[in-house]
């Protein structure tokens, strides 16, 4: 999976840029997207006008994550639940097999990787109880639409309500808005970086990101989300600021920074809004 967005849509944090990399050493956004399409014969590329492009290959990503692949199981141990496969382990618990899903609803494009373990609750929360085919990507899109239209919850709560292993990328072409996040444990491989022409790159393939961004990349911060209007924020600790941490590779060169919650620095305090008049849409 690869997404490339121009600065007009998503301004990457300055700390993601390595001070030791020259622009000529990196690819621009178009070149990087061409590299992805050339490397994946089954890739689907969606051009988003002047905003950028998204591409994915359903057949490239393994069905199991490396951690889950360590478990051995037989066909008798597999059961079908809510249109997803689960592995019965130790006789009492179930571990979801992660998958990649791409969907388009009206002007909203979304790629979801992973699995949520509270789908039933989220369906009820977002009025999808009667939609038997509602899966993870459907829920993320509906959660975004609810946030954008009515704003009953702040964006951090919307992401925090997602329980499971996940990384998702959503782009609203009508409002030119990017919304992306990764779970608190960093369960899914997810990286971001900057190209020579200043585009923001998001992908689950570290080799591809290195090829295009050289040293100007980093793992996407755990427990965080990034949006066009709000930039990078922590959904676990929404009232705390994030601070960049220098990252040095094995060659001793400075790379794009990691980001960590600053426990001692709070954002501007405000009285939380509650009740039916609460509307966080204008904050997103």
TrEMBL record:
<dbReference type="InterPro" id="IPR044828">
    <property type="entry name" value="TSJT1-like"/>
</dbReference>
<protein>
    <recommendedName>
        <fullName>DUF3700 domain-containing protein</fullName>
    </recommendedName>
</protein>
<dbReference type="Pfam" id="PF12481">
    <property type="entry name" value="DUF3700"/>
</dbReference>
<dbReference type="InterPro" id="IPR029055">
    <property type="entry name" value="Ntn_hydrolases_N"/>
</dbReference>
<dbReference type="InterPro" id="IPR024286">
    <property type="entry name" value="DUF3700"/>
</dbReference>
<feature type="domain" description="DUF3700">
    <location>
        <begin position="2"/>
        <end position="261"/>
    </location>
</feature>
């Amino acid at each position: 999976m690869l997404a490339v967005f121009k600065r007009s849509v998503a301004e990457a944090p300055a700390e993601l840029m390595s001070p030791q990399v020259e622009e000529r050493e990196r690819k621009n956004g178009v070149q990087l997207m061409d590299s992805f399409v050339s490397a994946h014969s089954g890739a689907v590329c969606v051009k988003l006008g002047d905003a950028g492009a998204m591409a994915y290959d359903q057949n490239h990503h393994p069905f199991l994550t490396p951690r889950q692949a360590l478990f051995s199981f037989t066909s008798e141990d597999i059961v079908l639940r809510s249109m997803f496969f689960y592995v019965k382990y130790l006789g009492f618990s179930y571990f979801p097999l992660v998958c990649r899903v791409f969907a388009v609803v009206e002007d909203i494009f979304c790629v979801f990787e992973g699995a949520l373990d509270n789908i039933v609750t989220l369906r009820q929360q977002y009025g999808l109880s009667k939609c038997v085919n509602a899966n993870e990507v459907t829920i993320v899109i509906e959660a975004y639409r609810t946030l954008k239209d009515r704003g009953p919850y702040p964006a951090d709560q919307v992401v925090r309500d997602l329980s499971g292993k996940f990384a998702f990328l959503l782009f609203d072409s009508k409002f030119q808005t990017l919304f992306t996040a990764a779970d608190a444990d960093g369960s899914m491989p997810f990286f971001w970086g900057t190209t020579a022409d200043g585009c923001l790159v998001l992908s689950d393939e570290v080799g591809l990101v290195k090829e295009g961004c050289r040293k100007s990349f980093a793992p996407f911060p755990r427990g965080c989300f990034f949006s066009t209007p709000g930039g990078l924020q922590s959904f676990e600790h929404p009232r705390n600021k994030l601070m960049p941490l220098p990252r040095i590779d094995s060659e001793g060169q400075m790379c794009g920074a990691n980001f960590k919650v600053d426990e001692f620095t709070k954002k501007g305090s405000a009285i939380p809004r509650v009740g039916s008049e609460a509307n966080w849409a204008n904050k997103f």
